[in-house]
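Chain X:
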Amino acid sequence: MARIVGYIASSLDGFIAAADDSLDWLFAYDGLDLGRHDYREFIKTVRTVVMGRATYDFLEKDGSPWAYGDQRVLVVTSRPIPHPKGPLETRSDVDALVAELRGLDDGDVWMLGGGRLQMAFIERGALDEIEIYVMPELLGGGKPLFPPAGFRHGLRLISASALDRGCVRLHYGF
């Protein structure tokens, strides 16, 4: 059975993007030494990438090449994607998607992007672990790590560690 995991960066005040959807604050940390927790090591364990439509639209507008050629990519959306940036499939039913993902056995599943889809998986008990990289930045507003959903759940701390340039890695299990 596949593990469904989150791997995401957040500002200290709990935002994953600035109010204008900018990630410039995060790009200032390019070259950050995360050691064995580096994204390049993480992505090697991932066979399936799942993202919501807002994350896909953000990536589509970005000028960089499609970064997920080695992974199966599923976009959760009810709208068609007429000219996808890269190879992908779409799904619209989150419950059916959770069942589909649980049936995989070829690597981890990464919940890429914003908190809305991650929260939908958390509410269904379908997110196994999450790594949050807290950056020493205060954005003062923007897109929250987890949008208010009225859902309450305790997490189990697996580990916490201080990394390069004031970044803190928090690893939780559900």
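Chain Y:
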Amino acid sequence: MTTYPALRMFIAGQWIADGEAGTMEVVNPSTGAVIGRCPKASTAQLDAALKAAGDAFPSWSATPGAERHAILRRAADLLRARAESIARVITAEMGKPRAQGVGEILSACDTIDFLGEEAKRRGGRLIPTRGNQLLAQMVTHEPIGPAVLLTPWNFPVNLPAKKIAGALAAGCTAIFKPAENTPASAQLLVECFVEAGLPEGVLNLVHGDPGPIAEHLIASPVTRKVSFTGSTAIGKQLGALAATHMKRFAPELGGHAPVIVSKNADLARAVAMCATTKFRNAGQVCVSPTRFLVAKEVYDEFVAEFAARTSRIKVGDPGADDSVDMGPLAHARRVAAMEQVVADAGGNRGEVVTGGSAIAGQGFFFQPTVIANPAPDSRFMIEEPFGPVAGIVPFDDIADAVRIANSLRYGLAAYAFSADLDEAHALGRALRAGMVGINQLIVSSPETPFGGVGDSGFGSEGGEEGYLAFTDTKLVMLAKAGG
């Protein structure tokens, strides 16, 4: 049994339990019980974090890449060693089953390792000159400056790890503001970096009300980069604020991922993968497969098997039962949102094949739900549900499926299943998304960029892009001193 830790902030190399702006409750979504109180940073404490990040930047940015790599590598090793205990905290804070939490943490470790290696690999390039007077044209990537990192609750270790490791590897200092309901997961991650030998002021952790904190940190002249993962609506607000102050802004926003299942697909494999992946983390995943567009020739079979598999998902408190497949939603308001989505799909606007209701009792639980043939203008087909609701739509031909898939302004992830090689290649080109999975539902690894287009944001985390996102490109043209 993991004890929930006493919650603290980390500012200028010091752990701080006293939030000068008060405290906020942390609730276990499986039980509705308050499990902790988190300190809220005052304006003065935010300014202290900004000063610490600003003061530490010259030294940290000048630290050789090999030394930055060594610290990040030690942090990843510490995180691996603590994966089981931290996963239990993730379960308590946001309801993710323990095994999924462990998987998230181990993935974060691999990402930290990769981005740390980039600190050693990245230098720049030489461009050939056009004449004898120029000796060299050098392009370098220099750390942009102190960064503000704003993260959500659904992957409370992996998403912060991408941002923190990218910033630190590139030579940036950072102020990290996690989601209000997952402060302990963030704290335990930061502890690994601190114990790995990170110098004072390089990484700071603050808690509190997200709106006022983001506004204050973004407006500060110390801040040079803002990285945000969250909803499209909030991303647009923060993007406008960042633009006002001429700050670099990298948003990773919502998605509504389509899955095209061709008549040429391996249907048994496709439906098994789709039904399992859809309800991972209770569907609270930005790249979650959500709109299943299925060829009419195999539509009825797909719906029947998908619904059968969905009905067998074991839902419950993952903190009390390790065999649970799906835990609660993060908030009571997410349950209300699912009820509205399902209600809109009733009558002649779609058929609820299985699920469709909140689960009575303590906690914030909702049944895994399948809607067959939801109306094109239904809430489900237009708004990101961000929960355990799947919709299955028949299509006549691939061109029609691509049209439906690309009909929204979201463009984070998209998927397709087809055993026809030419068709698979064509779908990979035609789907409008930052990441496309063909015959599989994994679109993220430490070595690859993670990001979207359209209302899903711009820029990427992970891969070499996750390092370069925290750098400025500089050109140096060196000429001879004399004739």
